[in-house]
Amino acid sequence: MNRRPLLSFTVCWVAGIAAGCLFSGRSLLFCLAVMLLLPVVWAVSGGIRWRAAAVLVMGLIVSALYWEYSEIRNVSLLPEVLGQSVSELNEAYITAAGVIASPVERDGDRVDFVVKLSGIRLHQQGKQSAAEVEEGETAAGAVGSDPEGECVIVQLKLQEKSEIAVAAQWQRGDRVVIEGELIQPQIARNFGGFDYRAYLLTQKIHWLLKGTGTASVTVNPQVSWEPSTILRWNDKARSVLGAEMSRLFQEPHAGYMKGLVIGIQKELDPETFRQFSQLGLTHILAISGMHVAVYVGVILVLLRRCRLTRETALTVTLLLVPVYVLLSGAGPSVIRAGIMSMIALLAARLGMLKDGLNILAASALMMLVWNPYLLLSVSFQLSFLVTAGLMVYTPLAAPLFRRLPGWLGSSLSVTIIAQLVSFPLTIYYFNQFSLLSVAANLLLVPFITFLVLPLGTLALLLGRVWSAAALLTAQLAEILNNITFAAVEWVNGFTSGVLIWASPSILWICLYYCLLYGLLHMLKRRTEAKLVPQFMDDETRPLAELERPELPGNIRGRAERNDVLNSAGAANSGRAARAFQTYPPTGATRWSNSAAILCAVGLTILLYKGYNAEVIRDGSGSISYLDIGQGDSSLITTPGGAHILVDGGGTVSFGNREEWRIRRSPFEVGAKTLLPLLKQRGIHRLDAVILTHGDQDHAGGLQAVLEGMPVSALLFNGTLADTEPYTKLMTTALDAGVRLYPVQQGMTLAPDEATRLNFLWPELPADGQTLPEEVEDQNHESVVFRLEMNGRSFLFTGDMDEAAEEAILRSASQSGIKQVSPIDVLKVAHHGSKTATSADWLAFWKPSAAVISAGVNNLYGHPHGTVLERLAVTEASVYRTDQQGEIQLRVRSEGIAVRYRLGDKE
User: Fold this and answer.
1) Phi, psi (5° rounding) for residue 199?
2) Is the pTM higher than 0.70?
3) Do 122 and 258 share a structural domain?
């Protein structure tokens, strides 16, 4: 506190905001009370003055109140303005007027932008005609009530290819009148899933406005200068730079170089991003401190070459930093780097002493005062934590690499510390970490930073001045990009190096950083002790023996200061003796060794616990009926820890889409929902995947699962589907070494002693048939099995039809089985379609509960009313993913505990 008061205050400010975010009510008061005690204890112990403690206490209280104040203000005004409840406004048809407050972005047949509302009117009688919308509504504020500048996201689906040119003319600052459907953003429908509504809440956005075609939008261009005009100019400049990149580079290089040089990531190839993400290299693709440092360094060198004075060069560079921040997209990481650079340049210009941690603290404090919700941004957290970690941990690690050449030791220490510091947040948000990440960063980051990035920037600068030279430079950059892509793909080929982690708790993350600091600190002390010659206090020694060996920079600085003290204190032998005795004695070395071992052991145990966090230790199993929309997917975890995935959902496409409608990164259930859920829960390997049949709404999502996670075995119905996705899925499985098993009636699978799967369908193949045949009606051939776990029974039915049900009942009758013991839970077939779940089927199994997997407001009307009536007759409890989201069952021998994501049992 005494050396860095701003840093201490910023830490308290962050802690207060975090407490307000994580807790509420009595929990918040208790948390604040505990944190407020810390400055008091610090003052009592004499570490800081009482005045400083009071400042820290005020920082904690004010920041927590500031968060609460922001939360109170962060509510939608539309229900009050329109006199409707939130549920009544959801899916209501409105006409809204306002100003475009963001760049207008198009992806395929969808256009997205943010509108700051100035007027809104609710359509009481449904959709109005276009003439009614346009009549008298071209001026801002002419539409209904004033929502006081609330922002909404507009999602416009284009109907014709010609509308692309119309939407391309829209810009930030244009006044618009839009007719569309007001939609509340989707919340997380699975435990641990992505919460889109909560994400938009951090941007103070509460509604989506969905329109159809450019005819539903009336646009008036901006005519007068406003403060937002600067951002409008910036959007145009970024658009021009992006177009120039597209002219100079071929795909996928154009999208890659746009992200690398000017921060435009929307056109980055999804596969390239996935490859870089797996190796922890995504920070290269986002404008960050590295880019700002290169930018500032190049400008300073050029200005000094132009013979400008040091002060003038610093001033000009200081003024140019905001320009680069705006041109690069002004993300949290580049804003942080820009603010830090400006403070450092100003301090250098004024000749003031500067401290990296204080500059970092000032940047964080300014950003959080401007917008406290930035604390929840992944980019903000990674940027500040990694930067702070490099400042704190790198000096501790530097002595460990003293035997290496200076440049290599410095590079290794920075790279390793950056990976160690970012590790907890990486596994918390992305749930995977590559053991080869350090090597990839060590080799590729300098290669890209000092070769590819300058070449891309040079090509962009030469583009309008010397086209031939620009194209030649771009070709050279593409050659280097190809080397980069090949290296990344080759390293990613070692799939065993990618570890999947469950999202850790905040306590786990704090313990990790504490143990890491303790380990590095003790190792540093041990290294320093070895570098210092040891003498007995009463030993007579020549002056030559007092010469120090060559030490690392931070140790050498301390030694030089001690030498100054010794020479200056020749008249005071006691003070000279104390100065010499500051070096650690032999006992301190032994203590450092013991402490380092304890920290290493603690860190090892912590990592082991974190990696195996998903293991169930109470002898229970679990079944999760996942909400993946209009599809089917269930996850079974046995008491022995085996993981079995039944189906994977899938996004169904209707017909061949025109090329202009295809989006760069369309929503795909497997990649965007299913695989992240499996990783978030720390599942390292799937012991089996059961594909009930080949329809896309059951098989489509498994493609991403097979590509992103180890799978031991794939069980399927023994038939083939004549579709390209199904063929690709089976090819991927074979290439990955997954064992394929066609299941048949009468087969069993026993993952552990407490679990058994009995397969009831499909029926045995005809005599002599050995090869799988192609079957068009996959529903009838769905895999059906009864799961026995801890003495409880569950029936999984896929999309079976009544004919398959009758065949199973007939087979049971022929075997002399007239009645079976009732099952606990029935997975209703075909999403509750009327083509299955007959009365005879329900009477045979007598389920106590039933689960229906169906999408919200699906086009098929699932579940059908007749099926619900049949279930009501059996008095079975009914759970539905369209109403309750994910449904989880914890299976114990004494009973089944049920919870679901939406509703009272979350």
Assistant:
1) -65, -45
2) yes
3) no
